[in-house]
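Give me the fold.
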Amino acid sequence: MPGCYRLDREKGRKMSKLKLLYGESNEEVLASQAAELQNAGYAVQTAIGRKAVQGLLNKESFDLVVLGQTLSRDDRHHLPYMAKKAQAAAKVLVLHTDGSRHPYVDGNIDTGSDMQHFLDKISAMFQQSKTQPKTQSSKTMAATSGR
């Protein structure tokens, strides 16, 4: 049955997409935005609240951890440390920021950005890592230290 083989191959190709952990505190926001990320081709695992994000970080491996706008400011500050501690290779993207940088955050999106900007940011984060894997983290650290 060549059709079945081909279908399985296509499923495998989709599964090789980036695996995202997306955390929010509001279930409605999480559901709608996670659906848009899935429609864009990402494999999305969702988590409601800080404890659920931390639990998944300790159980599974992710390419990207997205910390959403409905998480508290404290959670969006604390969880990047926890993400990098659990999975040093994972990138962290924080939504709804004031433009400031955090030493464990690989990308941030300022307040008022739309979904297309969100998708473009994810794409840019992983394009940049393909072209400059070693210098990207040092630029992030330099940007946070005021140099």
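The domain at 17-144 is CATH 3.40.50.2300 (Rossmann fold).
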